[in-house]
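Hi support team,

I submitted a single chain yesterday and got back a structure, but I'm not sure I'm reading the token output correctly. Could someone confirm the output below corresponds to the sequence I sent? I've pasted both exactly as they appear in my results page.

Thanks,
R.
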Amino acid sequence: MLSILIPTHNYDPQPLVDRLNLYAVNLGIEYEILVLDDASSAPLSLTDCTVLRMNRNVGRARGRNILGRAARYPYLLFIDSDSLPANEHYLERYLRIITECNSPLVVSGGRIYRPAADRDHSLLPAYGVRERNLSEGPSSAPFLSPNFLIDRDTFLSVLFDESFTGYGHEDTVFGISLLRRGIRYRVIDNPVIHCHIESNADFLRKNREALRTLHALAASDAYPELRTVSRMVRHASRLSLRLPPLLASAVGRILLRYPDARLLQLYKFLYYASLK
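Hi R., thanks for writing in. Yes, this is the structure output for that exact sequence:
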């Protein structure tokens, strides 16, 4: 019935695998757990799952495609490796949706964050509160891939764009590809907990990389839908001039000293609007 698919790179997903095995056995369902180890620096030693080991890093988009093609069952549940289900009914909630809905079936459950352990790791949890969409139902917001259920036929008809080799927005484009096929994905309140909270400096670095990816996508004109699904692209497109990079740099320095989710939004906009 269900293939649980976990891509990972340099992160041990054994706690997630153990939790999912427990839930699935208690539910008495047919299932499998496939983990794609995307060329971790030290090969992961995992039990009670099937591990697909990559000799070289293939990236987030291709890794998910490899898992989807290898899956045996008609429904695919993708979960990022640095996650844990937020409650014991996590799998049960998805299984109920499978029995109630017809194909195509695409459902994003969202994610939540534990409170920050310290100030230097506070930006990601603070931003995560803004990121999460709790209004259930069809969504036109950017698609989020850390925790989603999809029927296998739909997934294989769309797939992730494997030209993505860097960080960020492969899931945004996947969502656009769904919408182009007339497939509306649903948002439900069935989150995972994001367990790996990176430092504020690392979080800003990843945001800059993701914003460069988004800017290149918008500049290519291959995805005009970005002006609808991305507030960043929509707001920046109204500017007649490119902003000087020094503005973003100055706000970034302040942000590292005084972490704040609203200031982060300003930083991201200034950085995006400074890109050529």
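A quick pointer for reading it: Confidence is low (pLDDT under 50) at residues 133-138. Let us know if anything else looks off.

Best,
Support desk
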